[in-house]
Predict the structure of histidine kinase.
Amino acid sequence: MTMNTGSKIAPRARQGAAPWSGRQSMAWGAVLAGFLLVVYLVYFWTERLAIDKLQAGGAQRLEVYVSSLENALEKYDFLPKTLELNKDVIRLLQTPDDPALVAAVNQYLEQMNAQAKSTAIYISDLNGITHAASNWRGKDSFIGDNVSFRPYAQDALRGTPGRFYGVGTTNLEPGYFFAHGIYQDGKMLGLATVKVNIESLEKRWVQGADKVMLADEHGVIFLTSVPAWKYRTLAPLAPEVGALLTQTRQYYSHKLEPIPFLSDRRLGNGARVITVRDQALPGAAAKTSSSVMTQLQLKSPRNWQFIYLSDLLQARSSAQAAAVFSCVVLGFFLLLFFYVRQRRQALAHKLRAKEQLQYAYDNLETMVAERTSELNAMTQSLSQEIAVRSQAEHKLHLTQNELFQAGKMAVLGQMSASITHELNQPLTALRTMSDNAVILLERGRLDDAKNNLATISQIAARMGAITGQLKVFARKSTTSLTSVSIPTAISNALFLVERRLQVENVHFAMHVCGDDVFALCESNRLEQVLVNLFANALDSMAGASRRALTVDVTRQDDKVLICVSDSGPGLSDEVRERLFEPFFTTKPQGVGLGLGLAISEQITRQFGGILRADNPPGGGARFTIELQIAQQEEKHV
Ligand code: ADP
């Protein structure tokens, strides 16, 4: 029967912790990717919102700047045209060499310039030669200058209003030029030009907090609140544009190099995010780069690009802060998720353990009942086995006793011839002596008859002793152990083989240490063993020239050793090996049964002793009975 507790546990109990699987790794990867994506999106959208806000603000500011510029300039739009209303101007263009007219027009222009708060007003003929100018008094006067190469002059001479920003060729002062043809009766006589200084606007911008720039249609920045970017370009100039600018001397000898953008990204609505490394930006260190957003407004008809710069640092910082915040929030929720998951797992674990416990508990009762009934069955079968065993033991015991008895009877049978002889002799003597007694009584020899009868009585007593001894030997022995006198037991045994000792001429010797020795055994059985050993010794010496049987009784610690030695041939190795085997005999059939030593060995073992055999150095065989020493009269059960 086997305990099957393991098989009764619910299958779910066997589910161990799953190893780190590929699916789990993928799930973790997805969580991480999702985390990063969310953080990126938060960053992106926050930056986008901030940029949108900046863009909206920038667009408003641009409107303000554009309208203030337009307000400043549009009042000059019609000023050149109005000059043709002056008759002196017309006459001067008809007769340019009249000094009086030149002086009159100069004064008129000077006055007009002062009133209009422009930089200069001048009149040129159809060849572009300037004949009168508001700045006629100064040494940088425009009088005599040829302006035909200037685009505004060319436009005006073509009949369209000339509009042009450029650096003055005479005094190198930048200004915005308004030019218009002077007509009489529909015929162009020359052109009038008004130059307006718009640098004052730039001064106001520099003082303000905003960063604004004004670039021409080619992208050349000519007005800016960032001084270092003045006369820089938004992009490298095409070669033909560079050549044109050199030819028109629009920016005189300025180099017009592009602003070094580290990156440039278009946002739509004319907005761009640019990154620059330029100390020109206020607050930027020489080697740092900063991102700014540029917003563009094209101002028609002048074709100028109005650019508003917004610093993206703030937008970036708020995007970063939002990203960090989202990191923290996501991290918190992730932790919360793990915590809740852990808790749920722990709870599920607990629940499973509880279920298993309940299952085990439910099973336990069944198992206990099953086991109890199994145990009961076992106990029953064991008790049956025990009963059978004890019966068998009892039978064995009985059989053994029968065997011992049979052995004993066998010994008696073997000795029957000598016993018969032993009894026949006194019987013959008895018959003779009783006959003699009758004769003596008849003859009246009473004394002799009396002696004769006394001898008869002695012989009868002796015969009684022999039969008594036989009776004692033949009786069934008890199994209780007592304190037995070893010399007495030896004498009793010897009595049964005495006749053979005499007939076979065997020298017998016995040595007992001390007066008497007692051992724990049963006398009748010990005598049976001794008779066996003596008979075997006598049998072995049958063909020997010298026949000696010696019995030595010694003590060794708490043991008594009885050694029976003979002068026979001793024990061969083969015989020694099988000596105590039942039915082993070397004697002829009908003589030996092969049970003597087997029974003797068992009897000795029942005494708690040992029977062993060896060949002593002096020759022959030696059998030693080892018994537990006992005190006299001691009785053991
Ligand atoms: P049995 O005497 O009927 O043969 P035993 O069991 O008494 O049976 O003896 C078994 C054998 O042991 C004997 O046949 C004999 O060969 C051998 N044996 C016993 N005693 C002696 C002895 N003293 N010397 C030599 N052989 C012996």
Notes: Residues 532, 536-537, 540, 566, 568, 571, 575, 579, 584-587, 592-598, 621 surround adenosine-5'-diphosphate (CB under 6 Å).
